[in-house]
Amino acid sequence: MNKILSIGAVVVLLLFNACEKELNQVPFSQATTETFYAIPNDFIQGTNAIYSNLRTYPDRLLNLSETRSDNLYAISDGGVRDWEGINDFYKNLSTNPYIEEAWATNYNGIYKANVLLGQIEKNGSIITDEVLKKRLEAEAKFLRAFFYFDLVRIFGKVPIIDKVVTANEALAIPRSAVADVYKLIESDLQFAVDNLPPVYTIAADRGRATSYAARGILALVYMTKSGPTYDIEGPGLASNEWGKAYTLLNKIVVDNKYAFVSNYADIFSYSNENNPEVIFDVQYNTGSNPVTGATFPWLLAPDNWFTSLGKPVQGGLTIRPISNSLLSAYPANDTRKAFSIQNGYTGTGGVVETRSFFKKYIDLTKVPSSRVDWPINYIVLRYTDVLMLRAECVLNGGGGDVATEVIAPINQIRARAGLTVPLVTLTIPQLMEQRRLEFAGEGLRWHDLVRSGLVTTVIPAWDAADDIENKMEPFTKDFVIYPIPYNQINLKKDLYTQNKGYN
After folding, report:
1. CB burial class (10 A; 0-12, 13-18, 19+) of residue 408?
2. Residue 412 confidence (pLDDT) above 70
3. 285 and 309, same structural domain?
């Protein structure tokens, strides 16, 4: 994929992909947008620029979903860290850099999508290949929807900006109702479903969104909408669209373009990227200048562990410990636990660390010299997720068969993890626990709890059992979403009202 770095007034397009799979790269100035789109390839480069805003998406999931959930007890032992307020449900999070990043990066991506879409409308006749033109429009709409969906899950109501506007015009755009934001998301994703190719035959195009990726994300949108409202203006609208989601997910399964990888570790192997599980991922190009590799692998691991092994300092600083709740949830012989979790270590100077942390994405033979240049992709949507999301739709009355589309695939997933005793029944809470074990460390847990309605019972129970240092604030339903960043609230008086429950 790609990343944009601002250097003064120049925006550099870093079109990055994984390892040797590079889309392209070209610099351009924002001031020359009108003249940039002169040949068909310029529109491809403009589309690639939108993908660049996915670079930090994995980090955001780990900071705002994994850390917020009951999977981590992220209490720092080395000074106040930005993740602590996320973990502890602080009310004064409006200046938290993780939250500011979520707003800024998503809207930057939306801006780039709007630029591309505006140029296709204005100058699209330059692209004589109508199939390519539709594909580029569909890619831009897929990504715009992706960014808006991320915003809705994090902030609830957000401003709808579906065309390029000036700074002054933006100051007159209020936050829109969540239902209205979803209308844009669904429209964009449906266009992507209808106009994106099912596969790309050129290796350099790996990492671009496909029609199957659009189906999967649209299904998750319907499922998220179908979640409870919690009496707040958050992502759940209790819309009961499980049937729509089921149809989309079932299409992915029955078309047989993806497959269940038999060995869990192989899904995340550095030498097995683009494996049959991968439906959509964020891809990185390493060894480039400027650097465009990944940063998420080390995010939850402490620096002292790396240095104790003779590896370069990464940036994880102190440990973000895994919660006792998650550690005790794994059955005996579950191979996912050993693969995903480091159970302590002996650090520099012989200091013994007994707490556990995630190592899921770390291959110690692949540690780069630069901590921002890890050579591993982040899987946004994988086939196992589709199977489990479809099972969730079935259990919520969206159609399908419990025996073949819930029990059978869940037992297949468990068998891959070394759990030989099959389940014979499954409830929504039990399914969410199976998802927890499968996707631990992948940043999905918080959104799963919110969508399923379990967050208001699971989090308080976890707090009571695991908060041994008494650091966490009492959970309220207002904390299903995050506060609007203060730097946005402060742009114009009364333009935005802060989300309830936050300072």
Report:
1. middle
2. yes
3. no
The residues facing 358 across adjacent strands are 341
Residue 343 burial (CB count, 10 A): 14
The answer to the question of residue 366 being in a domain is no
- Residue 22 above 60 pLDDT? no
Which residue in the block uniquely carries the two structure tokens 């009496």? 231
Q: Are residues 21 and 136 in the same domain?
A: yes
Looking at the structure of the chain, the number of domains it has is 2
Q: Are 260 and 384 in contact (CB under 8 A)?
A: yes
Chain position carrying tokens 């539709």: 134
CA–CA distance, 48 with 29 (Å, rounded to integer): 15
Same structural domain for residues 282 and 199? yes
Last residue within a domain, chosen from 358, 390, 405? 358
- Count of residues making up the chain: 503
Whether residue 264 sits in one domain with residue 174: yes
pLDDT for 34: 60
Phi-psi region of 175 (alpha: psi -120 to 50; beta: other; left: phi over 0): beta
Same domain, 131 and 275: yes
**Predicted pLDDT at 286:** 87
Cα three-residue angle 43-5-380, rounded to 5 degrees: 75
Looking at the structure, tell me whether residues 197 and 330 fall in a common domain.
no
**Rounded CA separation 500/201 (Å):** 48
* Residue 474: DSSP 8-state: P
Residue 21: pLDDT above 70? no
Question: Both tokens of residue 48?
Answer: 């690639």
Residue 249 and residue 382 in one domain: yes
For 401, other C-beta atoms within 10 Å of its C-beta total: 10
The verdict on 306 and 281 lying in the same domain is: no
Q: Which of 357, 320, 355, 323 is nearest to 340 (CA)?
A: 357
Nearest to 237 by CA among 247, 218, 224: 224
Selection from 179, 249, 256, 247 nearest residue 217 by Cα = 249
H or E segment at 109?
Answer: helix 97-123
Distance CA 224, CA 228 (A): 9
Residue 12 neighbours by CB distance under 10 Å: 17
Task: Indicate whether 108 belongs to any domain.
Answer: yes
Out of 326, 358, 390, pick the residue that ends a domain. 358
Which tokens hold the place of 474?
A: 């009492």
For the CA atoms of 217, 41, 164, 283, the dihedral, rounded to the nearest 10 degrees, stands at: 40
* Alpha carbon separation from 181 to 54, 162, 248 (Å, rounded): 20, 10, 20
CA distance 461 to 364: 36
CATH of the domain at 415: 1.25.40.390
Find out whether 71 and 433 touch, Cβ atoms under 8 Å: no
Tens of pLDDT, residue by residue over 113-172, are 999 999 999 999 999 999 999 999 999 999 999 999 999 999 999 999 999 999 899 999
- Summarize pLDDT for 240-297 with one digit per residue, the tens: 999 999 999 999 999 999 999 999 999 999 999 999 999 999 999 888 777 789 999 9
Domain of 341 in residue numbering reads as 296-358
